Amino acid sequence: MFIRNSLLLFTVGHGLSKVEQAQISLSTEAKKSIDIHCKIESTNFESDTVHWYRQKLNQVLEHLVYVTSITTAARNQVDGKNKIEARKDARMFTSTLTVNFIEKEDVGIYYCAGWDSQY
């Protein structure tokens, strides 16, 4: 039996030139991992902080993780599970959120937000 989970994606920028998510909707099978990409055009991308959020249906926005380093991934547990990892790629001006072991509980709208270190 396959369970398909859909994720909707949006972006928010503060003090940045441009924040963009080309993937509007993603679907995958249960127990798989999925990568969500967020492109941030900024003159200070290496020092900028990128936050990732999720909003489930009829629930408040939930902060998942933030990443500041281009050399070290940021990880976070969700519901006691090692599900979330965020990375920054300075060459591509991109942050990637990986959601591991997708379950029905992971369905929601995912947001990335960039914060310029100068503001």
Write a structural description:
24% of the residues are buried. The protein is 0% helix and 57% strand. The protein has a single domain, classed as Sandwich (Immunoglobulin-like). The protein is mainly β. The strands form two sheets. A five-stranded mixed β-sheet has the order 3-1-10-5-6, with no helix packed on it.
Task: Describe this structure in a few short sentences.
Keywords: Adaptive immunity, Immunity, Immunoglobulin domain, Receptor, Signal, T cell receptor. The protein has strands at 4-14, 18-20, 25-29, 34-41, 49-55, 62-67, 74-78, 81-89, 94-99, 108-115.
How is the topology of this model organized?
Elements: E1 4-14, E2 18-20, E3 25-29, E4 34-41, E5 49-55, E6 62-67, E7 74-78, E8 81-89, E9 94-99, E10 108-115
Order of helices and strands: EEEEEEEEEE
Question: How is the biggest beta sheet arranged?
Answer: 5 strands, mixed
Name given to the CATH homologous superfamily: Immunoglobulins
**SS summary, helix count:** 0
Structural class: mainly beta
| CATH A-level architecture | Sandwich
Shape estimate:
globular
CATH class: Mainly Beta
Rg (CA only):
14 Å
Q: In percent terms, what proportion of residues is strand?
A: over 45%
How many β-strands, per DSSP?
10
Number of domains: 1
